[in-house]
Every structure is written in C-alpha cells, then in structure tokens.
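TODO from last week: model Coiled-coil-helix-coiled-coil-helix domain-containing protein 5.
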Amino acid sequence: QAALEITARYCRSEMEQYGRCVAASPASWQRDCHRLRLSMSRCAAAHPIVQQIRRDCAEPFAAFEQCLKENQASVTNCSDHVNAFLLCADRV
C-alpha cells in the first residue's frame, strides 16, 4: 500500500490516466495501456521509497504481473498476488 500511496501522491495524473485506460479496455488493457503504465512506472521509480520497495519486493511484484498476463479477462483472480505484494511493501 505504501507504494500505491506514494505513487498516488507523486504521480496522481499518470496513475489516473492508466486507471482510466484499464477500465476502458478490459479485454485489451495490457496492450492498449502499455505506454501509460510505463509513464506511471517511470514517475514512481523516481521516488526513493518506491525504489526500495521495488528492490525488496521484486519477486511478489513479478508474480503479480505474471498473474495479470495470464488472467487478462478476469484480473480479480490475482487478489492473492496483489495482497502478497502489498504485505511486502508495508514492511519496507
């Protein structure tokens, strides 16, 4: 949650644009929103706390992203993966 809060605080515009794109393209968001995801990631990566979370929680985040790729039609199947990542981020 810490990473999401920091991203929301410092990269609100990028995060909102990405969220709108994902919501508007439920079947093809992975392809259609890639550029916006990169923009949000670049913005967030500039913050030191986010950098530490990315280092310390790279494994659960990679598992979450892989789950999203495998479940593009029903991303709710990835709730366990996102929870694991958020638990890791809270410990940073």
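Done. The chain has seven helices and no strands.
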